[in-house]
Amino acid sequence: MSEKTQVLILCTANSARSQMAEGLLRQLAGGSIEVFSAGAKPSHVNPFAIEAMRARGIDISGHSSDHLAHYLDAEFDYVITVCDNAAETCPMFPGAARRIHWSFPDPAAVSGEHATILTSFIAVRDGLEAKLRRWLKTLQ
């Protein structure tokens, strides 16, 4: 097991919220945290999530959408759910993982023009960043 704090971020499709949170936490923690993301029904990394993160200076285009089953045997210090469905269906993880739940709306559920959809992704990205910054302060 790594000396670094181990964090798993879960969302149903592992396409937007958890992907953005993974990219943000990786940057904000500056290498002090190993972060992974997964979903119960993984799909693909949403292009709007990639675009919203690129606007923030973070490239998540190389991320993959992983099934949470890949991590069931791993030990995590924290398991963070970023959607209500993931919080309800999240399995128990071995070890002393502390569970944290933050409810964020699904930006992929927004329809309309490109700018409207991107705005929803940026709002969720900014909300995730604010939560992650506050949470990181509690670890110090």
Largest sheet: 4 strands, parallel
Q: How many helical elements?
A: 4
Low-confidence stretches: none
How are strands sequenced across the largest beta sheet?
2-1-3-4
Global structural class: alpha/beta
Identify the overall geometry: globular
Query: Mean pLDDT, nearest integer?
Result: 91
- The rounded distance between the terminal residues' Cα atoms is 21 Å
Strand content: 5-15%
Question: How would you describe this structure in keywords?
Answer:
single chain, about 140 residues, alpha/beta, Rossmann fold, four-stranded parallel beta sheet
Please tell me about this protein's structure.
The protein is α/β, with parallel strands linked by helices and 140 residues long. It has one domain: Response regulator (Rossmann fold), CATH 3.40.50. It has four helices and four strands; from the N terminus they run βαβαβαβα. The chain has a four-stranded parallel sheet with strand order 2-1-3-4. Strand 3, helix 3 (84-89) and strand 4 (98-101) form a beta-alpha-beta unit. The protein is globular, with a radius of gyration of 14 Å. The mean pLDDT is 91.
SSE layout:
Layout: E1 5-10, H1 17-29, E2 33-38, H2 47-55, E3 78-81, H3 84-89, E4 98-101, H4 114-139
Parallel strand pairs: 1-2, 1-3, 3-4
Helix pairs in contact: 1-2, 1-4, 2-4
Question: What can be said about this structure in brief?
Answer:
With about 140 residues, the chain is an alpha/beta fold. Helices cover about 40% and strands about 15% of the residues. Helix 3 links the parallel strand 3 and strand 4.
